[in-house]
What does this fold into?
Amino acid sequence: MECSGPCQVESAGANRAYAVCLSPDGKRVSVSIYDGLTKDIWIYDVARGLKTRFTFDATDERGPIWSPDGNRIVFNSNRKGNYDLSLKPSSGAGTEEVLLEYSAAGKYAMSWSADGRFILYRITSPQTGNDLFVLPLSGDRKPVPFLQTKFIENAGQFSPDGRWVAYESDESGRIEVYVVPFPGPGGKWQVSTGGGRYPKWPHDGTELFYLAPDNTLMAAAVNGKGASFEVGAIKPLFETPTFIGFGNPYDVTADGQRFLVNAVPEQAASAPITVVFNWTAGLKK
It folds into this structure.
């Protein structure tokens, strides 16, 4: 990526971009684009500045998440009415696989564990709202609930070492970022203090990024190497013109030094309006 600060994916009008997600090597970006009729997934080649359409179905495909090796993408589609999880090679070639299809609940992929064994996804339940479930990718592939309470749990992210999950919840009355052990059980640590959403880890796991309510990108120093999770100093990094739709509004490179932001483009200044009074007087000349 050719930028030292926040790179931007700008979207406007009917072609609105959602759910940006960097490939593990940072060379490609998957994004959901709404063309006014349906949502489809496109892949950007960052170095070449090219984009290629990844899905072509007449229904919605969105929420792309890369596999740890960058060879596959999991996404959700409502081809059968409910949003189910599908899997497809990131090259665009090969057979697409329906990964998870059950019940009337919509399923939205959040994160893929670094060892490739689990996918963390969200369902929306009429009884408990947003909950986080884990889908094992081996054995019988039976989903298991991970965080299922009367509160909202969303935006779950595996830590790079797979020992922790960061997520957002409104259990305090305001959406904050928390961390819990995986697969659990164990304690719970609140990371944000003034509201926070969309946590993201860099590859070394020594920081946890999130968006503050005013769209400032925050960085919390964290230490998850021991049995207990530690949260250190939190500092603001920069203000973002982030568009909040569905899915990830930003992403971070593996080294934690560069950010991709789904930005709302600045509106061009409108032409001035001239008001003419007593215009009939000019007709008499």
In short: Residues 268-280 have pLDDT under 50 and may be disordered. The radius of gyration is 21 Å. Residues 151-265 form a domain with the Neuraminidase fold (CATH 2.120.10.30). The chain is about 0% helix and 45% strand.
